[in-house]
Amino acid sequence: MAHVAHEMQRLDMQQPLLIGGATTSRVHTAVKIAPNYPGVTVYVPDASRAVGVASNLMSDELRNAYVAEVAADYEKIRAQHAAKKGPMLLSLAAARANAFRTDWRSYVPPRPAFLGRREIRNADLSELARAIDWAPFFQTWELSGPFPAILDDPVVGEVARNVYAEGQAMLKRIVEGRWVTASGVIAILPANSVGDDIELYADPSRTTVALTWRNLRQQNVRPPGKPNYCLADFVAPKDSGIEDYAGAFAVTAGLGIERKLAEFEAMKDDYSAIMLKALADRLAEAFAEWLHMRVRREYWAYAQDEALDSAAMIREEYRGIRPAPGYPACPDHTVKAALFGLLQAGRIGMQVTESYAMLPAASVSGFYLAHPEATYFAVGKIGEDQLSDFARRAGETDAALRRSLAPSLA
Questions:
Q1: What's the CA gap between 20 and 249, in Å, rounded?
Q2: Is residue 58 domain-resident?
Q3: What is the per-residue pLDDT across 91-136, written as a single tens digit (0 to 9) for each?
């Protein structure tokens, strides 16, 4: 967003810039975005409030005072932000010295039952529907609360029950009418860590690197006894001589969705279009959960005796993790391009854009790690020394990576 604002300045654009969405805030707008654009930049908490903002900006009587008020507010926010202490960071060397440690000599990596790439085409939508985690569905409608308790909430319960009933009704139509197609692809490959990187190899000889997955390490000061995690910590080091493995996946439940969305658009039925997109997202997440289960029990088969119900799987009570690019443990989005190349995701109708968005939108991708102590964590902020180290490992300049890793920079 800061880059787009800078480009608007470079092109001498004059349009007001309104910022909103789940990942934004008033502070983020004032500190990170507004300084890049001399035009009017306004944070709008949700789309309904954009009408009032636009009205103020278009009013000959109100515009100047409103713009001055926003500018003064943002200047105050920037001053308060500048006065705050930044996160306390270790040097990268100190963070690595406090890495997660395990006794690799006593660990025997589970040998996968299957090595290589495999496609799962036209997955059974009714089976995926049974694996849906409904809690995030309500967030689409800005209804907050745990599911199913939200259905009896004294404040939003009635609205939640109505939305849930309508969602269930449309889900039934999606499944029975085959409104969308769900397909996915996995790869389980030999792998080892090299420092903070994970190398995935083309075959068991481990002579050809199919993908180097570069990771970031927590650099913030940790409580005593808590390590500075990096995902590479959960894969056996190459110099240990231990033959470890890692997996990768990409799934979508959005193939063919455009046809039905066009029908709703022609009828000016925005509600049904949003509902369909929300349910496709839920099916994609359920697909990722369902496929991970099959990897654990069949393809990698390191948890053949696993017997968890849907609730336990949603709580992630199983062994192993599936970190996704762009999420806290793996904030670097750019690895998606290499990931999609490794998986040959185009063969199942998936692609990644130049800004690393997945198409279809109802898609999930990431990696599989099987170490029993593998856990999710947030990398948080990193220092300039880690930025330079990452650039060196990736063969990039600091400036090139500064943009892609901007949210992670202290």
A1: 31
A2: yes
A3: 999 999 999 999 999 999 999 999 999 999 999 999 999 999 999 9
In a domain? residue 372: yes
Query: 3-class DSSP state for residue 391?
Result: helix
Do 48 and 107 belong together in one domain? no
Give the mean model confidence (pLDDT) for residues 156-171: 96
Does an H or E element contain 26, and which?
Answer: helix 26-28
Q: Do 75 and 114 lie in a common domain?
A: no
Say if strands 41-43 and 116-120 run parallel, antiparallel, or are unpaired: unpaired
Six-digit token pair at 181? Answer: 């197609």
The answer to whether residue 267 sits within a structural domain is no
Question: β-strand 41-43 against 244-255: which pairing, if any?
Answer: unpaired
**Torsion (CA) 195, 201, 204, 208 in degrees, nearest 10:** -100
- Please state, in angstroms and rounded to a whole number, the distance separating the CA atoms of residues 255 and 154: 38
Looking at the structure, tell me whether residues 79 and 108 fall in a common domain: no
Confirm whether 163 is domain-assigned.
no
pTM, rounded to two decimals: 0.87
**Structural domain of 53:** 2-83
pLDDT of residue 81: 87
Structure tokens at 22: 């789940």
What are the C-alpha distances in Å from 283 to residues 27, 137, 175, 270, 345? 34, 11, 10, 20, 18
Please tell me whether the peptide bond between 45 and the residue prior to it is cis, using omega within 30 degrees of 0: no
294 and 176 in contact (C-beta within 8 Å)? no
CB contact burial 149-166 (16+ within 10 A = b; e otherwise)? ebbebeebeeebeebbee
Q: Are residues 101 and 197 in the same domain?
A: yes
State how far the Cα of 350 lies from the Cα of 343, in Å rounded to an integer: 10
- Phi/psi zone of residue 280: left (φ > 0), alpha (ψ -120 to 50 degrees), beta? alpha
> Would you state the structure tokens that stand for residue 383, as one six-digit string?
């220092």
- Could you give the C-alpha distances from 158 to 275, 381, 394, in angstroms and in order? 18, 41, 52
Peptide bond into 190 cis (omega under 30): no
Domain termination site, one of 50, 83, 116: 83
> To which H or E segment does residue 258 belong?
helix 257-266
> Within this chain, do residues 209 and 350 fall inside the same structural domain, yes or no?
yes
